[in-house]
Amino acid sequence: MKVLIIYSPLLLILFLLSLSPEGPASQPIQEPAQEEEVGPLEERMLVLKRGMRSLRRSLKDPEKDAASLDVIVEMQKAVAEGKLIPPPMVDAIPKEGRDEFVLDYRKLMILTQQELLKLEMGLLENDRDSAKAAYDALKAMEDAGHERFTEDG
Ligand code: HEM
Predict the structure, then answer these.
(1) Are 78 and 44 in contact (CB under 8 A)?
(2) Nearest-5° angle of CA 80, CA 146, CA 111?
(3) Is the distance from CB of 34 to CB of 83 less than 8 angstroms?
(4) How do the residues of the chain divide into helix, strand and coil, expressed in percent and rounded to 5?
(5) Which of 7, 15, 80, 134 lies at a CB distance of 3.0 to 4.6 Å from 119, suitable for a disulfide?
(6) In terms of residue numbers, what domain contains 129?
(7) Phi-psi domain of 152 (left: phi exceeds 0; alpha: psi -120 through 50; beta: other)
(8) How buried is 79 (Cβ within 10 angstroms: 0-12 exposed, 13-18 middle, 19+ buried)?
(9) How many C-beta atoms lie closer than 10 Å to residue 138's C-beta?
């Protein structure tokens, strides 16, 4: 009897486990959430986004110019690559207008490159006003670029 009392909780647990085929050990491993695919152009755009965000603060501080210059060069690379990747929206443009669409896209990306070069030069020459003007121009180009070359403007 005593033995039964001592072992009964254990027996109960064993009994309950036998009823539950989905014990923790046999539960299927949770698949990681499917990562949303980032397209090649979007990948470069995200470099611009991060760059603009960090420049917003760092440009105000000449002590941070070296770090700002690193960011600017990364952005220049992203635009140099991105200008050769047609925007996905091109598929929604009638066939006869596609060449012009891609050409206009490339030209605006070249203007973006030029502004990034002015920004770099501004910092190298410690011309804060010129650097600030180039930063503002980049913001305007972002808006213009998205208005014309993305589906949701
Ligand atoms: C500093 C300037 C810019 C920044 C910070 C920027 C940022 C971004 C970001 C964050 C996205 C992804 C949007 C999303 O899906 O969440 C994006 C997409 C896009 N941007 Fe820009 N952008 C800039 C300039 C431009 C310019 C100048 C153009 C056109 C000449 C442009 C064309 C596009 C296009 C076509 C997409 C869609 C890419 C895709 O879906 O694969 N962007 N941009």
Answers:
(1) yes
(2) 40
(3) no
(4) 75, 0, 25
(5) 134
(6) 40-85+94-149
(7) alpha
(8) buried
(9) 21
Q: pLDDT, tens digit, for every residue of 33-68?
A: 567 899 999 999 999 999 999 999 999 999 999 999
> Residue 80's pLDDT is what?
98
d(CA 89, ligand 1 centre) in Å:
12
pLDDT tens for each residue of 11-41: 555 444 454 444 445 555 555 556 789 999 9
Q: Is residue 61 part of a domain?
A: yes
Residue found by looking up tokens 């152009």 in the block:
41
Ligand 1 pocket, 68 CB below 6 A?
no
Distance from CA of residue 139 to its chain's centroid? Answer: 17
Residue nearest (by alpha carbon) to ligand 1 atom 15: 42
Contact 107, 83 (CB under 8 A): no
Q: What's the predicted TM-score (pTM) here?
A: 0.82
Q: Please indicate, yes or no, if residue 121 is contained in any of the structural domains.
A: yes
CATH number at residue 52: 1.20.120.10
Single-letter amino acid, residue 99: D
Closest CA to 149 of 80, 82, 101, 110: 101
Is there an atom of ligand 1 within 6 Å of 42 CB?
Answer: yes
